[in-house]
Amino acid sequence: MQLEGGTGSSLRERLNKAALALLLVPAAAAAADLPATQIDTTTLYYGEQDRVQVVEPVVRATRLFGDGQILSVQLAVDLITGASPSGALPTGVPQTITSPSGKVSSTPAGAIPTTKFQDHRGGLDADWQTPIGKYFNSTLGMHASREKDYQSLGVTAKVSAEMFQRSLTVTAGGGYNWDSVFPVGGTPIGLSDGTEVTNGKNSKKVESFLFGVSRVMSRRWLLGLDASRTLERGYLTEPYKVISLVSFRSDSPIGQLTDNRPASRARSSLLASSVYHLDQDILYSSYRYYKDSWGIRSNTVDASYRHDLDDGWYLEPHARYYHQTAADFFTFGIVAGLAPPEYATSDYRLGQLTTMTLGLTFAFHVEDSPALWTVRADYIRQAGSGTAPENLGSASTFDLNPAINTISLVVGYSFNM
After folding, report:
1. CA distance 199 to 197
2. What does the pLDDT read at residue 92?
3. pTM of the complete model
4. Contact present, 176 and 207 (Cβ < 8 Å)
């Protein structure tokens, strides 16, 4: 099952970022000491209240060569279980829903209908960094992942140039992904009752471009500005989501239509970041603006403060605020008898959302061992706009997008060989 959020940052991508946040600090320290090989391991647990549960172990090996070349290889495995909102509206009576794959689920009266699922994923990433002359650096990468109904293959390339006595770094890069979507039970026709499906794989192509500039402002202060552009083409619909069909007379759901989204999506983002080194501690802060061709706009403010303790230990509290608008074709339901729109979805991840995150990272050594342990815990609260149009009748009296509480825990272990 492909887990995707509104801004194009998939759930798995966000989980990988959380795990990699623990890998990057020890890796940077290792680069300074130039050990032969650095091994980083993390295990992540992500749990949404009454919904998705994820366990993800990650192993990353980094080889540092004497001529400045760096080879990194990462293996990740995701084990995902739980339930995800189907997109259907709650009603005052119990509901029985049959998914396109043939699974039958029951929902109590007044509850948000959900679909249970279970999936696993394996992913392999590799990066090769090579210095070119005195001021340039290139990085080539590859990615491959496979799950029950989704496959992704990709390549990336990036070039960085250091100028003005290494006080200014300019980076440009891009990537290309060949993805395939093959839903369990077949691919339903968009905005249909779901009984008619097509078999085989659905193609999805993703092109991404990045341009960034970082500037050393002073001995303590580093500023960065990154712009990215992503173009997606192909099958972008969520095959397991549905939209309630509401009776014009009875004001209650009488059926369901399948999700249907455009076959292209252009995403743009601008990220401004700052790293300021105080006498002992480090302050990280960033702001990200995002927009896409589906009408979603988002703003993200992120800040963390690393407080160094004795013997290489440190504490790092973290806070994040995120808000997004709804997609142009987001709806809570479609009124029967009216001409259906060209595109429509009730997927809450494409609706209006506000997310607050509070977290803390603790890093420490055990006795005299040089290996570094890191533990990161995050509390995430996500809430959406549950207000529905009055023409949905009785369904509009329910909270259609209740707040979700999530706990994320990452344990990391890093050592040199």
Report:
1. 7
2. 66
3. 0.89
4. yes
